[in-house]
Amino acid sequence: MPPYTDRLHALRAQLAQDGLDGFVVPLTDEHMSEYVGGYAQRLAWLTGFQGSAGAAAVLAETAAMFTDGRYTLQVRQQVDAADWSYQPVPAVSIADWLAEHAPAGGRIGYDPWLHTSAWVREAGAALAGKGATLVAVTHNPIDAIWADRPQPSDARLTVQDDTVAGASSAEKRSAIADWLAEHSADAVVLTALDSIAWALNIRGADVAHTPVALAYAIVDADGTAQLFVAPDKVTDAVRQHLGNAVRVRDRADFATALGGYAGKLIAADPDRAVAAIFDRLSAGGATIMTARDPVVLAKALKNPAEIAGHRAASARDGAALTRFLRWCEAELPRGGQTELSAAAKLQELREATGVLLDTSFDTISATGAHGASPHYHVTEESNAPIEAGQLYLVDSGGQYADGTTDVTRVAPVGPPTAEMRDRFTRVLQGHIAIASAIFPPGTTGGQIDAFARRPLWEAGLDYAHGTGHGVGAYLSVHEGPQRIAQPNYPGGGPSEPLRAGMIISNEPGYYKAGEYGIRIENLVLVEPRTPPGGDAGMLGFETLTFAPIERSLIVPEMLSESEAAWLDAYHARVVAVLGPQLDPAEQAWLAAKCAPIR
């Protein structure tokens, strides 16, 4: 019997002991994080699912996994259909599924430290219609049966130097204080780990690939703050950096501290603060102002130091990736390489920079059919040989003190088919359409998402993920509020206007189930743009990522004159930026890969 089946049986036994008829298991932590520490990987432990977005619902006789279109194939490979049904998000919500399957009069448990208040209201209302009740648990039942559950990381905090951050923590806290004054509020609760890291100019190592620390913060209207973090994580250097205006308290004190704001107006983000935080504030007599975390937009608008740092990180990272692509061209056709060995080679080349601090996510090293899963995660069990006739897709990034990178390229192993070249060229055309877009202020990513899809739509094709996500400054590789996505795709919904200073990915793709995947991803910076002969005040994109785009996969005749000109100009820039970092042999190879397309 697979271990995951045993774990599901154990959870059902624990639920019966706790007087519950069901339980909901999200993939998040107490901070509503996308990427979570090992101690919070409850969904993966229970089901075997290794994706970065999903949830599960367990009842006495049935159980369901909820994933979006990015994981349609992956969830079926990793989660046993004998134990779980597969439910597509957003077509089916957890609340709707529970309303249909929960027993009348049933008690369905949830951990209030892992769900938003909005979710609690929605699920509670759906269950009430069935005569069932949503019950907040005081102890997560999975923790009771997870015998070898990891402890939270004890890694120490580090200081993000002001010269790289571009503004001091005092300046950032002063801006938050101004925001509080505008709203006549007394304090704001910061729960998002990257918001806390950015506001206080600190970094951590508590979550793989994301340099954040497990902490909470409360910033008061006078610009002072309380940082709730495990005491052993704070060094003398960090205390000196924080100064007297930031009081360091034990993370264990946070829940109690929320009860001390009677009569005060406290701001909290309903999308980033869990239900338990709102419950504690209300119970303590605070008046709650629901508002978006004021750090979110400020963090997204990169300052000159952050932009300069990203350019430096991108140039460094691009040279490592270019060396890797050259290696792929020479080594993959010879055979003997696997998805894991290729990922290890790319890691080796990034580490050779001497300044790599981490990868920015688990490298997506996918050959053949695995490339058709947009968020495929290679493991020892899934590791496949890279063979002739396949497309090898690598989506990866680095964490450097001056920037976070994210880039995707595709390498053919031997001559590609005509269909592969057609699909790749259409993806490239969509990529160019985004990269060269010019648009007025107020335009959202959702409004330009179709630019990337049109070449595919014209052939009756599409892809089931968003086209772009925000990226942090030595922070999370997935950062809001900006994105390029349709409302009905993962990451969709109401869009944020794109503003100068935002960094966002440009990554259209195409995926043929069982055969191959294609994605071309660069990061771009939103910047002011005045078209020749046009009015000032428009916006456009500066491409920040530099690495060759595979020529043998392009059908030159399909490109318009403007598309070919964009590609040639981009490749000329690749040579100019990366050439000085390469040796003569590498320079010659790059020059050939970046020669004019016609």
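(ticket continues) Second input and output from the same batch:
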Amino acid sequence: MQSDKQLTGKNKQKFSGLFWAAVGFTGIFSVWAVLSPNTLTTTLWDWVYKYHANFSWFTVLMPLIILSLCLYLAFSKFGKIKLGGKDEKPEFSTFSWMAVLFTAGIGVGLVNFGVAEPLSHYLNSPLGLAGGHDEVTAAKNALSMTLFIWGLPAWSIYTISGLVIGYFAYHKKAKFLPGTPIEQGFKHKKWGRPVGQLTNVVAAGAASLTMAASIGLGVFQVKNGVQAVTGMSFPGVTSSVVILLIMFAVYTSAAVFPVQKGMKILGDINVYVAVALLLFVFVVGNTNFFMSTIMSTFKSTFFDIIPLSFESYTFFDKGWFFDWPNTTFIWWVSWTPFLGIFIARVSKGRTIRQIVLASILVPTLFLIMWFSVFGGFGIHEAIIGNGEIVNYIINNPDDVYLSFIMVLQSLPWFPIMGTLFIILIIVFLATSATSAVISLGILTSDGVENAPPYRIFIWSVITTMVAFANVVTGTLNGVRAVAVIIGIPYMFFLFLAIAGMFRQMRKDYREGSV
């Protein structure tokens, strides 16, 4: 681990400048969100929709472009390149590595939207009931659209962000910074360095604000779960603050431990609990229906991605298209600053081919099963059941998160499964938060491989304070708007970084250095 004493005075200056720039960038939007949440939310979402109105065609196509680049890297001559050199050994077992990759990237959204998103597409998308389709076709299309948003496209965005940072960090001995591929790949250009530095500042702001919004959503989910399991009501903000402090203790403890310990433990727990819940609903629910749904969704996930990537619903109302595929894809991009650093950090000793296949295919296959079971349960209940869950979503379009708990409540052993649900939310959120604050520590420590624990702790406190302010004031929609608006320019930085990596890879391959 590189300590402060090992950092030169010049590097300390760089750290100090980047740290304060990142804190200032984060603070401006956070204070705005607390003091004038309505103004912030209205202004930023207005900007987002103006972007959508002009460039939604690019946003929906962008993940397919990145997926194609990932597949090219995996199966080309570059696929055999190992991060860290030919003799480098992985720090994690294959299971723990994949668990960490998956749980850091998916976060609490897996539970927040596991039931709600397929039902929302079933009701409101041009491919659903709102588009004039019958119930069966709308159900199939809803799951296909859900996996289009959460499956291969999302994980290709995360993967490429890790590869561009990892390649320069391990093969060029460069810094673990999102701007490094731009600085190094375009170092002969005058704009390379300033654009790279700007990328780092925006990355830190995106990471902290995006994570703060996710933490806030997680607090409400845990509170919903506790209320459902205990049958007790917890009005006011005191209970939310207590939950937030518990989560802070969990992810801060994991973050200050060596990454091989803290993240490994959280990742393994996440997988075990998530699989336990999934298997329970699969076995106790309509197993035959779930199997049929899994097979159908598997097919559509891999065969519908190209037509869906070229569909911008020109002759339909664009409200759903802007709110779901477009906004969600940009949200994924806003996660890449810290996920890119984190994926690079935990993938040392793995080849590019292994990273691409593991970090794209494995999560996607799990998500096919997850959404087919939980989302399929909600759709099945809407078509031939009493419609309680779908009616809840119709009547509460801005608070759909209780739908997941409603699935568990309709099955036996809810006190046990509900408790597992609460554990899953806390650990899922802790895994994502841990990866975020570790990455922020690395980013503002001049890109060292292992940031000093106190810097990680500082970012854990800052992120939690932003989440605290927004939980208390109820301004999470404003923070989400900030994360999305930051993701729009960050798409440009990401493509510049990808271009920088390809330039460097070709040069290194010609010179025989890889």
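Agent notes: The CA atoms of residues 231 and 372 lie 29 Å apart. The two ends are 26 Å apart (CA to CA). Closing as not reproducible unless the customer responds.
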